[in-house]
């Protein structure tokens, strides 16, 4: 009788182990969106609040490392802006004076946004550049901008063309979140075609998105 009881307990343990092995992945790991909590998405096997480059975040927020974070400088009305600025296109900008110039000396220009190696993610310095470019586009009412993605020479030509495209599109999505209409922007990838670097220090300049006024 004791031997039969032990045998049944052993069978039960094996059955429970098999059931556990056959079950779904343990949160936050996932195979698809159904493994995640409501409002979350399965991205690269992990449940997260939003998808890179998507529109999953509410107005005024952007997706950063799978979480929605506030966009610096975003506004919904003038009350969200510092004194002396207006809210235009969801961005706080300095209003024009009566002679058609802004209240700050000099004219803004669009700057290249730089990326980390083998990445299209927007680092903090990249976002700062894009925020400045968005404000410049709005304040000067630039009608059309072409965003050109570049890569350093490492990797195949096909891979770098795709990476340059991802970088340009990531920058476009960020600017769109800041209020720049997509109709004013065009993306293009040059891949490694324009790369001039020869080592780690100079390759940094090749990993960028250029902004060309059209």
**Could you tell me the strand content as a percent range?**
15-25%
CATH first level of the largest domain: Alpha Beta
**Span between termini:** 88 Å
The radius of gyration is 25 Å
Q: What is the CATH superfamily of the largest domain? A: OmpA-like domain
Spans of at least 5 consecutive residues with low confidence:
96-103
Task: Name the structural class.
Answer: alpha+beta
Look up the CATH topology of the largest domain. Answer: 60s Ribosomal Protein L30, Chain: A
Percent helix range: 25-40%
Overall outline? flat
Level-2 CATH architecture of the largest domain: 2-Layer Sandwich
Number of domains: 2
Defining traits:
4 helices, 60s Ribosomal Protein L30, Chain: A, flat, two-stranded antiparallel sheet, 214 residues, 29% helix, alpha+beta
Would you give an account of this structure?
This protein is of the alpha+beta class and 214 residues long. The chain has 2 domains: 28-69, no CATH class; 105-214, OmpA-like domain (60s Ribosomal Protein L30, Chain: A, 2-Layer Sandwich), CATH 3.30.1330. Helices cover 29% and strands 19% of the residues. The protein is built from 4 helices and 10 strands; from the N terminus they run H-E-E-E-E-E-E-E-H-E-H-E-H-E. The strands form 4 sheets. The protein has a 4-stranded mixed beta sheet. The longest helix is centred in the N-terminal third of the chain and has 21 residues, at 2-22. The radius of gyration is 25 Å and the shape is flat. The chain starts with a helix and ends with a strand. The relative contact order is 0.11.
């Amino acid at each position: 009788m004791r031997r039969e009881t032990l045998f049944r307990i052993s069978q039960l343990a094996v059955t429970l182990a098999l059931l556990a092995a056959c079950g779904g992945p343990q949160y936050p790991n996932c195979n698809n969106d159904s493994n995640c909590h409501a409002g979350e998405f399965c991205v690269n096997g992990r449940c997260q609040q939003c998808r890179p480059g998507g529109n999953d975040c509410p107005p005024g927020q952007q997706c950063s490392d799978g979480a929605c974070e506030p966009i610096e400088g975003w506004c919904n009305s003038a009350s969200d802006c510092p004194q002396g600025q207006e809210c235009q296109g969801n961005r706080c900008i300095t209003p024009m004076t009566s002679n058609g110039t802004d209240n700050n000396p000099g004219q803004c220009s669009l700057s290249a946004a730089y990326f980390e190696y083998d990445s299209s993610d927007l680092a903090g310095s990249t976002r700062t550049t894009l925020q400045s470019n968005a404000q410049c586009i709005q304040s000067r009412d630039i009608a059309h901008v072409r965003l050109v993605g570049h890569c350093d020479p490492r990797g195949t030509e096909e891979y770098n063309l795709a990476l340059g495209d991802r970088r340009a599109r990531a920058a476009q999505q960020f600017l769109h979140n800041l209020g720049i209409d997509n109709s004013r922007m065009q993306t293009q990838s040059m891949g490694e075609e324009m790369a001039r670097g020869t080592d780690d220090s100079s390759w940094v300049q090749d990993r960028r998105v250029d902004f060309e006024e059209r």
